[in-house]
Design brief:
By secondary structure, the protein is mainly α. It folds into three domains: 138 residues; 105 residues, no CATH class; 109 residues, Cytochrome Bc1 Complex, Chain D, domain 2 (Orthogonal Bundle). Helices cover 43% and strands 4% of the residues. It has a two-stranded antiparallel ribbon. The chain has a two-stranded antiparallel ribbon with strand order 3-4. A two-stranded antiparallel ribbon has the order 5-6. Strand 1 and strand 2 form a beta hairpin. The longest helix has 26 residues. It is globular and about 70 Å long. The N terminus is likely disordered.
Length: 421
């Protein structure tokens, strides 16, 4: 009997061993040997310039630069549904940055979400998208970052609950939601479309904001670009579910992505402002390719802005609009007469949720220093919650043919107290 038990135990171990080894491999990755920081002369100007373009399309500086801090030196606190994650220092500082990272270590972080020490990264660093980046573009990004000014900057720790603060947990998340795969062009599409699809999907990781996520923080792959939420703002749908009052054209979307303004759709707000600032530095043909890719997925049928529903307007909101907004946004306002977009065309006003309208009124649209573009002052200190609620309800009723927003009061209070998150 004892012999049978021992034999059974040996068989169980033999059967379980491959599973145990596989699990260990999932949660353990080796450290990569450090290297002497490469000299700038090792990289050609053309490769560095390509890396600068990829960094702009990928918004690297947006996430990896804290307010009023040195570019790429990290420290920005990124809110997630699970807690705060601190963006790391990616300047070539040896002690606190990536100065002693080899290109192989950098490639592993980009493609597999594992840092030079073998620690799993959180998908706030969008490696599920960067995994599709080409070798050429990863090399260019490495060259660009390694030729930035080194900045010594220690990072505050992430603020995540157990067990999420334990990095090996991310191995299980990767098993569920991460698929390492190279980029493949669609042979049925044009070269421009494929270029835009690659830049939007792999480098620009647009789906990270514009696709809904599930309870575990994974993108809902069955609903690509169906709209998402980021930092208290709604990221609109970029496919057939787009709520735009008029169809986007490639020319209009290209201009919007480069300037933050479309005379047929409105102005960029919230996190999208930084995206448009970065894309303003990118060659126009690449931004146009991105626009070509997204416009191909959006509604094509021409529409006419719906007639305003005057009977649904709220008197209190009408008064607030007259005092705070009409000077710029009334149909006969000088700004509108000179070609500024009507609120009836605004994607924010026609959105399924009032969140972005509330955020825009509260925080305004920041001035683009040295650039032409939209500007709107914030009204956070001017309007109280009741006035803001009345105003948002009025704008929806007056300028949109969509149904009345049902949760304006709650969304207003949440935006004021919690930033909308």
């Amino acid at each position: 009997m004892t012999l049978r038990i021992r034999l059974a135990g040996i068989v169980a171990i033999v059967i379980a061993l491959p599973v145990m080894v596989s699990c260990a491999a999932l949660v353990w990755q080796p450290a990569m040997p450090p290297v002497t920081p490469p000299k700038a002369a090792q990289f050609s100007p053309e490769v560095i310039a390509r890396g600068a373009e990829m960094a702009a399309i990928g918004d690297c500086a947006v996430c990896h630069t804290a307010s009023h801090a040195q570019p790429y030196a990290g420290g920005r606190r990124i809110p997630t549904p699970f807690g705060l994650i601190t963006a790391t220092n990616i300047t070539p500082d040896v002690e606190s940055g990536v100065g002693n990272w080899s290109e192989a270590a950098f490639r592993r972080a980009m493609r597999d979400g594992v840092d030079d020490q073998g620690r799993f990264l959180y998908p706030a660093m969008p490696y599920p998208h960067f995994t599709q980046a080409t070798d050429q573009d990863i090399t260019a990004l490495y060259a660009f970052l390694m030729t930035r000014q080194p900045v010594h900057a220690e990072m505050p720790p992430n603020e995540l609950p157990l067990p999420l603060k334990l990095r090996p947990v991310m191995a299980g998340w990767n098993l569920l939601f991460f698929k390492a795969q190279p980029w493949r062009d669609d042979p049925k599409q044009s070269a421009e479309w494929n270029r835009g699809a690659y830049l939007a999907t792999a480098i620009g990781h647009c789906a990270a904001c514009h696709t809904p996520i599930n309870a575990l923080g994974g993108e809902v792959s069955s609903k690509p670009y169906a709209g998402g939420e980021v930092e208290g703002w709604d990221a609109p749908a970029l496919q057939a579910a787009s709520s735009a009052a008029k169809p986007w054209t490639v020319e209009e979307l290209t201009d919007y992505l480069r300037t933050g303004l479309s005379d047929q759709h409105g102005a960029a707000g919230g996190p999208m402002v930084d995206v448009t600032r970065e894309l303003a530095t990118v060659p126009e043909q690449d931004v146009r390719a991105i626009a070509t890719y997204f416009v191909s997925q959006m509604p094509k049928s021409p529409t006419v802005p719906p007639a305003p529903k005057e009977n649904e307007s709220v008197a209190a909101g009408s008064a607030v609009f007259a005092g705070a907004c009409a000077g710029c946004h009334a149909p006969n306002a000088p700004m509108v007469q000179r070609g500024a977009p009507s609120l009836a065309l605004s994607s924010v006003v026609n959105a399924p949720s009032p969140r972005d309208a509330i955020q825009t009124i509260l925080h305004g649209l920041p001035w683009r220093e040295g650039k032409t573009g939209p500007y709107m002052p914030p009204f956070e200190a001017v309007l109280n919650n009741q006035q803001l609620t009345d105003l948002v309800r009025y704008i929806r009723a007056r300028f949109s043919g969509g149904p009345a927003w049902a949760d304006v009061e709650a969304q207003t209070q949440n935006a004021r107290q919690n930033g909308g998150t």
